[in-house]
Specification:
Shape: elongated
Largest sheet: 7 strands, mixed
Number of domains: 4
Strand order of the largest sheet: 10-22-21-20-11-18-19
Radius of gyration: 34 Å
Helix content: 40-55%
Number of strands: 22
Number of helices: 20
Structural class: alpha+beta
Distance between the termini: 29 Å
């Protein structure tokens, strides 16, 4: 609770005590009026000042104006009737302020939850100078600087680990509580907490371009992008407030005039003015104006806590209507890391064939060559390899321990006049020949992410009508991955421009209000992310261009989070619609009762403050997404 909230709580307490105590004081006339003005001004002076400021700035019709007119009118009516009953006016202002305090506390709590979640901005970076560690502002650290991250410290800037091994707590970034092990050669992103060992890291980005800076920027700017529901409420309030003020004025004036002029009855001004004042209190649109933005704010905060960054409430609303999800393949559904998945028709032991292949390919930095070297698992002794010859588009030949080795595709085998056995598996096929004789082939393919199949199943369970995969891979490999994961449609051998064209066709197939989401991670996915109704980027390993173009960023690269993001958005929108229907429904009923004279000021208090409190409580539910 902040100072402002504590101060308001004291004012509420003082006003409530005085309101209970004053009926026991034997005072009449002006003395009674003066005594009752003490709790009224104690609890309502700021509302009166805001109403006056609104009138001065020609922004008259807001909740402060309604409260001021209703309560001052009730006091004036009590003076006119000389009944000394100022209790209702004070009670209206008191309960309104209780509702405002509750709303302020609820908003503050949700903001604190998000602030704690996003408490990842590092205060300093350790730079070693003359044998001593010096703490410097992360903004001052240049690319290529070696920084030291000690146990318990936040990683200040993205980089590559040069020395040391440790365990990282990445929960603030990804929402994942499981620690991540890291060692020399691994990439490390800012915002993680180093838990165990000392790390030396060479920075690869400036602080302003680092992961933590981008996350903070996304969170800070999310509230500026309003959803259609929020814009509707803003437009609604601008029309609704002057309309009810006009209706209240008509209710106070027209019936008495009709009674006098047309019916020959007493005007009964006091009764109709009381009804008009009650009508004004009931009409205050606080529940809508407060709870709808709060629902979206809480929804964005809950998503952030789960490692899903939504750039604005408009994107949260669009996400809830997702009916088609289109995936890039490499790095999205697959790990983007090539591995040896099979060895077929080998004349040698598998380990021996891999050893020959890894040594022959040792001079290449191609991903396929690296996958062979990883499969070999031992340090490469380049002294064992001679006469390396790389044949572009075919493969390599070399001598390993004096033995002629050829590793490449079927074109290389044909070039060497060696008959090879075709492979029916999907992936990259490395045919091997030893001393001019065919020795089998090695199958290398991208590895499907552990949760990809479950992610597709959950999307369909969440009501997504169609899943599509777009890839530049060959048709055979793409079809195999799509079949394995249960994807409805697959389009392969696509260039970036082809992906945009295909998304255009899919956008034309949408039904009703459904939206198309595209999920990608590479720099070539940026145009498609921008063209889709909602772009979702893999944030941990995704390219900067993809993250910038996307509307939603998944911080742990887990495709399971896509279905969770949709469920969070639908829960949030469900709460928004509940609040709209509930608030408007109760208001309309109470307005009719107030106009008919059935509802008094106490019912008006419930219709205003009670509905607001219930709507705010319902909005706060959007923060809780753990079990979705």
């Amino acid at each position: 609770m902040n100072k402002k909230q504590k101060k308001m709580l004291v004012r509420i307490g003082i006003a409530a005590i005085l309101l209970l105590a004053l009926p026991q004081v034997p005072a009449e006339g002006l003395a009674r009026f003066a005594l009752y003005m003490i709790p009224y001004l104690t609890i309502g002076y700021d509302i009166l000042l805001k109403a006056a400021k609104g009138i001065k700035n020609r922004q008259i019709f807001d909740e402060n104006f309604l409260m001021a007119v209703a309560t001052v009118g009730a006091i004036a009516l009590a003076l006119y009737q000389k009944n000394g009953d100022y209790t209702e006016a004070i009670a209206v202002m008191l309960f309104y302020q209780i509702g405002e305090w509750f709303q302020s506390y609820a908003v503050g709590k949700s903001r604190r939850n998000i602030s704690e979640l996003m408490d990842i901005r590092p205060d300093y970076a350790n730079v070693e100078q003359e044998g001593q560690l010096e703490q410097v502002d992360p903004d001052e650290v240049e690319i290529g600087t070696v920084i030291v991250v000690q146990p318990g410290e936040k990683v200040p800037i993205d980089g590559v680990v040069l020395e040391g091994a440790s365990t990282l707590n990445t929960s603030a970034l990804t929402g994942e509580s499981l620690p991540r092990d890291i060692q020399a050669g691994d990439e490390i992103v800012s915002g993680c907490i180093n838990m165990t060992g000392v790390l030396k890291v060479r920075t690869t980005r400036e602080f302003g371009e680092s992961t933590v800076s981008k996350i903070l920027d996304l969170v800070e700017n999310a509230s500026s992008r309003k959803s259609r529901s929020e814009n509707f409420i803003s437009r609604f309030a601008r029309v609704y407030t002057p309309a009810v003020c006009g209706a209240a004025l008509a209710l106070a004036v027209l019936p008495p005039l009709v009674r006098m002029a047309g019916m020959g009855l007493p005007a009964d001004w006091g009764s109709w003015i009381y009804r008009a004042l009650t009508f004004l209190v009931i009409s205050c649109p606080c529940a809508l104006v407060i709870s709808i933005p709060l629902s979206f704010f809480a929804g964005i905060g809950g998503a952030g806590k789960a490692g899903i960054l939504v750039k604005g409430s408009n994107y949260l609303e669009t996400l809830s209507q997702t009916g088609i999800v289109v995936f890039d393949k490499t790095g999205t559904l697959t790990q983007g890391v090539f591995e040896v998945n099979g060895i077929h028709h080998s004349e040698l032991e598998n380990e021996r064939l891999i050893e020959y292949a890894a040594l022959a390919e040792s001079a290449s930095s191609h991903p396929i060559s690296r996958s062979l070297q990883r499969a070999y698992g031992k340090e490469i002794d380049r002294g064992r390899v001679t006469d390396i010859r790389e044949i572009s588009g075919n493969g390599v030949t070399a001598k390993v321990d004096g033995v002629e080795v050829a590793a490449g595709n079927d074109k290389l085998m044909n070039r060497l006049g060696i008959s090879c056995i075709p492979c029916h598996s999907a992936g990259t096929i490395i045919h091997m020949a030893i001393d001019g004789a065919y020795a089998g082939h090695i199958v290398i393919s991208d590895v499907v992410k552990p949760h990809s199949e479950e992610a597709i199943r959950l999307l369909k369970k969440s009501g997504v009508r169609k899943t599509v995969m777009l890839t530049g891979d060959r048709k055979k490999a793409a079809d195999q991955t799509a079949a394995q994961l249960g994807i409805d449609e697959v389009y392969s051998e696509l260039l970036p421009a082809d992906k945009v064209e295909q998304v255009e066709k899919l956008l034309a197939e949408k039904r009703g209000k459904e939206k198309l989401a595209f999920v990608g991670d590479g720099i070539n996915d940026a145009p498609v992310l921008g063209r889709a109704d909602i772009g979702i980027a893999m944030g941990a390993m995704g390219s900067d261009a993809a993250i910038e173009a996307a509307d939603v960023v998944l911080m742990d690269d887990d495709p399971m989070q896509i279905a969770k993001a949709i469920r969070i958005s639908r829960k949030c929108l469900g709460i928004v619609y509940q609040n709209i229907v509930f608030a408007i429904g109760i208001k309309l009923i109470c307005l009719v009762l107030g106009a008919l004279g059935i509802a008094n000021m106490w019912l008006a208090i419930f219709a205003d403050v009670g509905v607001m409190i219930l709507a705010v409580l319902n909005a706060i539910r959007a923060l809780f997404v753990k079990n979705l």
